[in-house]
Amino acid sequence: MDKVFIEGLEIETTIGIYDWERRIRQPLVIDLEMAFDNRVPAASDAIGDTLDYKAVSKRLIEYVSQSEFGLVETLAERCAEIVLSEFGVTWLRLKLGKPGAVRGARAVGVVIERTRGA
């Protein structure tokens, strides 16, 4: 399976369950792997045949920066739904990290794998 990836996409948003978290913006980091058959764009050398990772990134930045969820789990699910439904991706692995949320840890968060229709 070929994959297109976005690594270390940093987006500031309002996220968290504590009152103090609701009053500030915090950075989140997204790593995303998406199944995509790269043989067609490799043969054509045409951007229109690719999975446009810039378009995916811009869409996630737009969505996440305006969101105000309590849980990273909820935000990860919504991001996965967007990518699966809007970009023709059939499978993805999404890692959503919340840097500095736990003392002594670089980041905490979730990793999910989803398939369109599942």
Topology:
Layout: E1 3-13, H1 19-22, E2 26-35, H2 39-44, H3 53-66, H4 72-86, E3 91-99, E4 107-115
Antiparallel strand pairs: 1-2, 2-3, 3-4
Helix pairs in contact: 3-4
Structure, described:
The protein is α+β, with helices and mostly antiparallel strands and 118 residues long. The chain is 33% helix and 33% strand. A hairpin with a 7-residue loop joins strand 3 and strand 4 (107-115). Helix 3 runs antiparallel to helix 4 (72-86). It is elongated and about 50 Å long. The model has no long low-confidence stretch (mean pLDDT 95).
From the structure above, extract its key features.
EC 4.1.2.25; 118 residues; four-stranded antiparallel β-sheet; 4 helices; 7,8-dihydroneopterin aldolase; alpha+beta; single chain
Mean pLDDT: 95
**What is the terminal separation in angstroms?**
18 Å
Query: How can the largest sheet be summarized?
Result: 4 strands, antiparallel
Shape: elongated
Number of strands: 4
> Largest beta sheet: what is the strand line-up?
1-2-3-4
What proportion of the residues form beta strands (DSSP E)?
25-35%
Q: Report the structural category.
A: alpha+beta
Number of helices: 4
Helicity, as a percent range: 25-40%
